[in-house]
Records
---
Amino acid sequence: MWNPFRKKKDVSELIKDGSFIDARAQLLDELDESRDLSSDTHSKFHVLLGQIADLCLKQDQPLEAKKYYAELVDHHVERGFYTKAVAILKKMHRLDPEDPEVLTRIADFNRRVPKYMVNTKMAEELVEKSKEIESNQRAPRARRRS
C-alpha cells in the first residue's frame, strides 16, 4: 500500500536492496542539480560522479563507467588534484588495459606532470604502448594514401 508519509529511500538503501537502476536514476538527478556552481550540492559533484561510475560497474556497464570516470579525472585536474586524477586513470586502465584513449590520457598526463605518476615504470610502459597504438592507427592511413 502506498504511504504518502513514507520517507524516500536514499541511494545506499537502494543499492543495498539491489535496486541499482533506481539508485542510478536518483544519483543522476542529484548530479544534474550539482553541475551548477551556485548549487548547494556542487561540493559533492565529484562524489556523485564516482558513485554513478561505480554503479555502472555493478550493472556490468564498463563503457558508461569509463565515461563518468573520465569526467571525474577532468574535474580533479581542473582543481589541481593530480594524485586523485592519476588514481582514477589507473582504475580506468584496469577496466580496459587496451583502451587507446585511456593509454593516451595516462601518457599525456605523465608528460605534463610526471611527479604525480606513482609508478613511473608503469607510466613508461603505458607511454610506449600508447605510441605503439598511435603508430598502428597511422599506418593504415599512410597505406591508403599510397
---
Amino acid sequence: MFEPRQIANEERLNGRQHTVVVIMNLMLLVELTVCMYLGQQDPDTLTLFFLKTFLPVAGATLVGARMLVRRLGNTPGNRAAQ
C-alpha cells in the first residue's frame, strides 16, 4: 500500500552530515537531561523552568545543526571531489 520514497544518491546525507546529526541528537539528549535535573530542584516551578530553558536551547541546537547540514551538503563542485 505505502512504499517508502526512493532517495537519489545525490540527495542522501554524506558522512560529515551524518556526524552533525548524531552530535545534534546527543546534544539534545544532554540538554533535556540537564534541564530536567535542574528543574526538579524546585518542583513547583518545574514546568516554567523547563519551558524557559529547554525550548530556547533546543531551538538554537536545531537551527545550528540545520545550518551545518546544509553547509556541509553536496554541491556540484563538492560532488566531484568525493
---
Amino acid sequence: MRSARKAFVPRTILLLSESAIVAEQIEQALATYCLAHHIQWHVDIRSFQQSLISSHLQPESAAHVDLFLIAYVDDTLKAQQTLLELSKLVRWKKVPSVLFLNQDDPTFVRMLYHLGANSVLKFPPRFDSLQQLISTMDAYWFDAVTLPFSEDE
C-alpha cells in the first residue's frame, strides 16, 4: 500500500545573502520543482528586522519564518555573525537554520553547529546540483520534519 503524498504547503523562507546571483539561483532552483514558498530575501538579519519595523505590521504576523536559509557562500565570518545574531532572540532560536558555504573546513562547520546551525551544506558549483540539493532540503525540512510553531499559533 502506498502512502498518500502530502499536499504542498507554502512556507516562509528567510533567505540571507549578499549576492543577488546566489539568491536568484536558489529561487530558480525552488521554482524548478514548483516549490512556491514565500521567500523573503535580505542581505542580512538587520535589514530583515528593519523591514519588520518599517512595515508597521503586528509583531506576531511579521515574525513567522519557517526556515532561515543563510547563503553567505564565500563569507564565513558573516555566516558566523548571523548565527550569533539569531541566537540572541528566543523566537529565532526555534527556527531551523540552514547554511550554504563554499568551503567545508570540519572545525569551522563544527563551530557553526555549536552556534545553532541545523544544517551546513556545501554550495554546489553547478545549477543542476543546486536544484537537487534544494529539492532534498525542501523534502526534509517541510515534509519529514515537524517544525515548531510559535506560541501564538
